[in-house]
């Protein structure tokens, strides 16, 4: 049996026809080769387009990284300026404390009087000298308290890369130094008995497991229903269940920029607008909101910025 063939007529350049005869097998091979070549060309084309897109994407990423680097440099410069401001504030406080310790403040006496007049009075009036000594000791105590607060606040600012506002520290200087600081209106007692289970600062979130979580207060754990007290006198601004993980929350405004928060309570015993005294029971310990057990989440804020509550608390609970 004769195998059918495929005829193809091709016209040459000189006008003569040239006939090419292909068998079905040859035609099939030619079709396969043609298909392979077509697919290869298509793949190369797609690869070239993808490669070009990848190059464009890499260029965009490089540009983005360059912009991010510039932004990081700007943030570094801002942080350097903040550190310089903090150092200046710290140095001013050191000079104030040095003047209080030596009894020779940098500007006038401890009460703003002329140092020469104070020296003359010291020589002629023992009673006045005693009064001045008492005033200096009182000022020294305030300066020491202010320096301690500034130390912890500066430590937190430097540790957290400038996350806290330097204005809070400057306001704290003004508040403490201007006589607005008093034990009754400053959070200076423990909110409850118990054990600190989570300190202020960076931590692993106990609920979500996130490693980048920042804890804006301290957690004090004890028995369910343990009394929680106001750590300073003030006015209740929030009392009840809130969003944001606090559960049943009590917030108290103490004036001079100080605010405290008490979260996860099982019961709230105050209402918004109520005036409370230092040590007054305001809630009962619980585990409402984002919580893994009975405790109180305690925050201290200065002009809206969370600071380490341990700065203000006595050593023993």
UniProtKB/TrEMBL annotation:
PANTHER family (alphabetical): MUREIN HYDROLASE ACTIVATOR ENVC (PTHR21666:SF270), PEPTIDASE-RELATED (PTHR21666)
Region (Disordered): 98-125
Name this polypeptide is given: Peptidase M24
Coiled coil: 55-92
Pfam families: Peptidase_M23
GO molecular function list: metalloendopeptidase activity
Boundaries of every M23ase beta-sheet core domain copy: 214-309
Entry's transmembrane regions: 29-50
UniProt keyword terms in alphabetical order: Coiled coil, Membrane, Transmembrane, Transmembrane helix
């Amino acid at each position: 049996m004769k195998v059918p063939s495929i005829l193809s007529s091709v016209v040459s350049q000189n006008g003569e026809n040239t006939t090419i005869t292909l068998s079905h097998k040859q035609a099939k091979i030619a079709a396969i080769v043609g298909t392979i070549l077509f697919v290869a060309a298509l793949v190369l084309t797609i690869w070239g387009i993808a490669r070009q897109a990848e190059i464009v994407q890499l260029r965009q990423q490089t540009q983005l990284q360059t912009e991010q680097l510039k932004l990081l440099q700007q943030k570094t410069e801002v942080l350097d300026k903040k550190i310089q401001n903090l150092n200046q504030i710290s140095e001013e406080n050191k000079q104030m404390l040095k003047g209080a310790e030596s009894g020779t403040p940098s500007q006038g006496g401890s009460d703003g009087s002329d140092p020469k007049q104070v020296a003359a009075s010291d020589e002629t009036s023992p009673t006045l000298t005693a009064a001045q000594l008492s005033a200096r000791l009182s000022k020294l105590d305030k300066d020491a308290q202010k320096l301690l607060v500034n130390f912890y606040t500066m430590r937190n600012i430097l540790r957290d890369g400038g996350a806290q506002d330097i204005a809070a520290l400057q306001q704290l200087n003004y508040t403490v130094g201007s006589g607005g600081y008093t034990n009754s209106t400053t959070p200076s007692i423990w909110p409850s008995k118990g054990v600190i289970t989570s300190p202020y600062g960076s931590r692993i979130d106990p609920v979500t497991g996130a490693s980048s979580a920042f804890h804006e207060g301290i957690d004090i754990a004890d028995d369910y229903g343990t009394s929680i007290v106001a750590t300073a006198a003030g006015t209740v601004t929030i009392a009840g269940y809130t969003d944001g993980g606090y559960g049943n929350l009590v917030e108290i405004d103490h004036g001079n920029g100080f605010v405290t928060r008490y979260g996860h309570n099982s019961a709230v015993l105050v209402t918004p607008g109520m005036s409370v005294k230092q040590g007054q029971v305001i809630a009962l310990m619980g585990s409402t909101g984002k919580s893994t057990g009975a405790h109180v989440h305690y925050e201290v804020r200065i002009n809206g910025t969370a600071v380490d509550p341990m700065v203000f608390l006595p050593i023993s609970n």
